[in-house]
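EI: anyone free to look at a 280-residue chain?
SC: sure, send it
EI:
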Amino acid sequence: MNRTTFLSISILIVLLLAAICSVFAQPINGYTKNYVTNKPVDYVNIGLMGKELGTVSSANGFFSIDIPSHFNNDTLYFSRVGFEKKGIKVGDLRSEKSNSIFLVEKRYALDEVSIEPKKFKKKTLGVTTDFKGVVAGFNNYHLGYELGLLMKVKKSTYIQKVKINFASSSYDTVFLRLNIYKPTGELSFENILKEPVYIKVAKSEIEKPIIIDLKNQYLHVDDNFLVTLEYVKDLGEGQLMFCASLISQPTYYRDISQGAWRKLPAPIGISMSVEVETEK
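SC: here you go
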């Protein structure tokens, strides 16, 4: 092999390696922080909107996400209840010298109160079964995976409590986030919580009903709303199962942070119910 041929082959190999590197995911690491206090913002949803590339920051705000370079012109979104959503172009994020993403706390406008002589009645929505003979669980354990039920209402309604019936768990402690959304389209939703709600349950308590009181958030809806459970902390290898039941409406889920919402084809729902006060 002469020198010219050797150099040509070497250059070709370098170009091929460069092309391969540009195709495969390149990690972006950083920390999500409060713009004012500089303190970590935990469990922030991070991802490309509608695509299957996402993650959730840790309890100390650290995140790492692998994004191929052909997404450099796409926007990476950072969102969490209590903060304004932030979007940064992937290419710009790669070139940033600082690895801190600063989020601004959200200011919630006070709802206008109209005093009218309305009468309300208590009602329970969703799946209430505690039978452990039928169970269901998450399809995967990617950070940001969500699974939930659409609660149907057509009148003025105040959300009071959420109840969950777990069936079993191999984890010592379960840690999930509860989300409540209002529909903004057929498969698009907006979170209506004012503060994040986390569920932490020890293995010894997993078979007891878990009740989350939401009265202090003053959640009011006039139409359907979606209640989900989200996997936001890496719990390691294991499995979590819920009591479940056949239902006449679809279960909603998304595989990853900022990913596309979908409906499960199987007519089965996890045992999650909501106590509400709805207008008579």
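EI: Residues 27 and 64 are 6 Å apart (CA to CA).
SC: 👍
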